[in-house]
Amino acid sequence: MLQPLAQNIVYGILIGALYGLAAVGLSLVFGVSKFLNVSHGELLMLGGYASFWIFKGLKIDPFISIPLTIIFLLLIGFILYRLIFSRLIKLEVDKKIQNSLLVGFGLSTILQNIALRLWTADDRSITTAYSGTSFELAGIRFPAVRLISLGITIVVLISLQIFLKKTFTGKAIRATVEDWQSASLMGINIHRVYLLAFMLGCGMAGVAGTLVSICYSIDPSMGLNWTLKSMVVMVLGGLGSMIGTFVGGIILGVTESATAFFIGGNYRLIAGLVLFLVILIFRPQGLFGTKEGDR
Amino acid sequence: MLKLTEIDTYYGDLQALWGISLEVKEGEMVSLIGPNGAGKTTTLQSITGLLRPARGNISFDGHDLLKVPPDKIVDLGISMVMEGGRVFAGMSVMENLELGAYGARARKDRAETIEHVFETFPRLKERLTQRAGTLSGGERQMLAIGRAMMSKPKLLMLDEPSFGLAPILVDAIFEMVKGINKQGVTILLVEQNVRAALELADRAYVIENGRIVGEGSGEALLSFESVRSAYLG
Amino acid sequence: MKKNQTLLIALIFTVALALVPLIIKKDNLLTYLCMILLYISLASSWNILGGYTGQVSLGHSAFFGLGALATRLLWFTGWNVLLAMLVGGAVAIVFALIIGSPAFKLRGAYFTIGTLALGQILFATVGNIFPQISSLPVQDLVSYTLVSRYYLFLAIALITVLVAYLIANSRLGLGMMAVREQEDAAESLGVNAFKHKLFALVISAFLAGLAGGAFAFFQIGYYPQYPFSPIWTLDSTMMAYIGGTGTILGPIIGAIFFVVLKEVLSLNLAEFHPTVFGVLFILVVLFLPGGFMGLWKRIRDKQNKKRESVAELSHP
Q1: What would you report as the CA-atom Rg of chain C, rounded to the nearest whole angstrom?
Q2: What's A2-282's CATH class?
Q3: Which end of chain A is more exposed for a tag (fewer CB within 10 A), N or C?
Q4: Contacts of C108 in chain A (CB under 8 A)
């Protein structure tokens, strides 16, 4: 009884890391510009498909082609921001959040439809030569691809932390989150900060998508669930705390796995959503957040 | 150096400033005093571009400020210390000061400038790695001013630097501001603490309900009857 | 005079719509009309909470689904379908009452996301509990008439629009709009925001539940999960926005536009109508906040201004 449970928990942690990665992207955008991009899941999906087709067409190993995926998503982020989200900047906070949400939905509808038409509704998954290998420790299987994904996730998150903490641009971003007026008066171009944050958010969604296509599978309709998962984790971890968000992802992953184990696989998603509602209603600042939630 | 001519600024549909005209000459220390809600902060925001006046003219060193976005103001040499000792609370003292020199012009002289700031505010050097949010009120105000100094401004604008500070600190802060002025930085000081503002300033403007209702040298206004009764009680 | 005019036009339309099945015999055309009427009901009921009270809910499909589920279950066990529909509506009301209190603790975008999550929870749960397709038994298939379904959809649509109209023009509606504009200010004027929001939610839920019941009566075979799908919510929300939230005609126009556009596009752009609709939706949110109705109003205002200035010239 204990062994399958432990295996389950391990699987939960491994996928939870990806939840955390996806959520950090969403959290970054929301924290900086107060845009709730609910097409985040679709951007993740696009990242997954990009890797898939690069692998199919150019035969490049999906882990290695991650930089390509990132560039692709950065570009998309640039276009989407300039075309759509930049027009929401001037709104006051409440309207900004709400309208970005609505716009995000329109966008998710569009992206989902295009993906469906282009690539059919079939599940896709990247299978490499080493996709089946796994390591065993204490009788628990650790699939190689998921371990690598965990590693990549950690690398990406650490890189982001370093960027935000050590570089001037990163500091400019943090300053903008704290006090955009003062930041502006010190010469920081707020619009560029917003744009950069948005692009970074998209880039991270792309990486997460790649990892999902390798470890699990992707399909055009996956977006909404991933967006919701990202939001759950974002709220769990509290804004402004990357560690909190990562841990939040793990928590969600383990909650889902435990639910699947004790109740049934079909209830994975529901467990996460219920957790989401509970947190939203009773503790909107998340489990770790120190800043005030936007109420 | 700085000249406002007939500025009208609105908050949405509400007019907040009516025909504000004032001038700050190079090297001067000018105070803008008035009661709560008179429009002092609004005036400063109109200058920095965080609010756009609907009518009127603002020029600085020959530049038309109405055409300059807020993030370019600092490049022209205007720096502002906002109300309430606003600093980037989640970042360290050092990071705050660094960001003060964000613009290219100030960035290369950063090391030198920061030493200068430490001379004026030795307390900041002690607290270099501390998170700005954990500083005391007075220290935060010093950091805010020090940060503003990092951009090597020609004009330094301060919005109620004494607000919420203990009296001893208030004197210290004003001494520092006077010191900065002596070093050649032009100062526009917005203050509720009328006595101090008038004692320090070369000249002052009185603003009430969005209109300039008085102007004169600091001393002259101090002795002016209505100012006395209205503000000094 | 204006009011009587409007009433007259509405009456004419109603009668015309009632006479449609006598003229149109083609089944697929009648089905389109059924769909339009269904969407009108969904969009209008959404609009009561979202447009008039300003609480953008993305969980509308939950009520639609609950109504459909209850109706289908009861009807299949032999209940009269109309009674089953009323129970369906009642189930929706009960659900609305249960979630109302916790839901409205959330403001603005958080409410929206919360309702989205709630809708998804129901969608997934129903899919787990009722995974099998629900098919009309053979004997009912034989007696299936499209015309009766049409009239049912027409009745629901009329009721929904009528209720929306009555609310909008009542004191209650005024309170709702006050909550929408400035909730805190409204509260200080004595408007109990929570009561108004809850009432809007309950009415909205009931009407959506009825629409769900009509759907259960109409659709021959479907997965019980289907009416709970977020696609219903998103479509109704987009229709309301494109037509114009906070108006009576807005959702109607949006619904007609949606179905017609779908048809037009299916000839050329095949299955890309969600994309076109999504683009339109984004355009409306960004540039045309009042939707078609807002645009229409702006044009009319401009014309009135012209008329006034012309009148001034001739009567100095």
Answers
A1: 20
A2: mainly alpha
A3: N
A4: 94, 97-98
Tell me the two tokens of residue B146: 């020090």
Cβ-based interface (< 8 Å): residues of A facing B:
168, 171-172, 174-175, 178-179, 181-190, 240
Chains A and C touch (3+ CB pairs under 8 A): yes
Q: Is B52 helix (H, G, I), strand (E, B) or coil?
A: coil
**Could you write out the DSSP letters of every residue in chain C?**
-HHHHHHHHHHHHHHHHHHHHHH---HHHHHHHHHHHHHHHHHHHHHIIIIIS----S-HHHHHHHHHHHHHHHHHTT--HHHHHHHHHHHHHHHHHHHHHHHTTS-HHHHHHHHHHHHHHHHHHHHHH--S-EE--HHHHHT--HHHHHHHHHHHHHHHHHHHHHHHTSHHHHHHHHHHH-HHHHHHTT--HHHHHHHHHHHHHHHHHHHHHHHHHH-SEE-TTGGGSHHHHHHHHHHHHHH-TTSSHHHHHHHHHHHHHHHHHHHHTGGGHHHHHHHHHHHHHHH-TTHHHHHHHHHHHHHHHHHHHHHHHH--
Q: Domain limits of chain C?
A: 25-230
- Each of the 295 residues of chain A gets a pLDDT tens digit; together they read 677 888 889 999 999 999 999 999 999 999 898 899 999 999 999 999 999 999 988 888 888 899 999 999 999 999 999 999 999 988 888 788 888 989 999 999 999 999 998 998 888 888 888 888 888 888 888 888 899 999 999 999 999 999 999 998 999 999 998 888 899 998 899 999 999 999 999 999 999 999 999 999 999 999 999 999 999 898 888 777 888 899 999 999 999 998 888 888 778 888 889 988 888 888 766 555 544 433 2
Considering only CB atoms, which chain C residues are within 8 Å of A114? 272, 275
> What is the value of pTM for the model shown?
0.87
What residue ranges define each of the domains in chain B, with the CATH number in brackets? 2-77+153-232 (3.40.50.300), 87-152 (no CATH)
